[in-house]
Design a protein that fits this description.
The protein is mainly alpha-helical. The protein has 3 helices and no strands. Helix 1 packs across helix 3. Keywords: Membrane, Transmembrane, Transmembrane helix.
């Protein structure tokens, strides 16, 4: 009978991998928000008229969304690697 080994997701290296995925998602969110503002005049106009809080909310929303998505994708990748080995 095989012994049940713990998931790599719960270990320290798994948490570091998840943090790495979250940071990559946050960086992609920042890049996407900058690209969206530079390429779409309507978004830039809305942010100009909305004040400084509109910019903060816009950027934080995109960064958080991308970071959560990248973290969940990282969980799937780590679990798939764990099943293969």
């Amino acid at each position: 009978m095989r012994t049940k080994k713990s998931s790599e997701l719960i270990s320290a290296s798994g948490l570091i991998k998840l943090m790495t995925h979250a940071m990559m998602g946050a960086a992609l969110g920042l890049i996407f928000s900058l690209a969206l503002v530079l390429s779409n005049r309507a978004v830039a106009n809305l942010l100009n008229n909305g004040g400084s809080q509109a910019v903060v909310v816009f950027v934080l929303t995109l960064v958080t969304t991308f970071a959560i998505g990248a973290t969940l994708t990282g969980v799937v990748f780590i679990l798939a690697e764990d099943k293969q080995s």
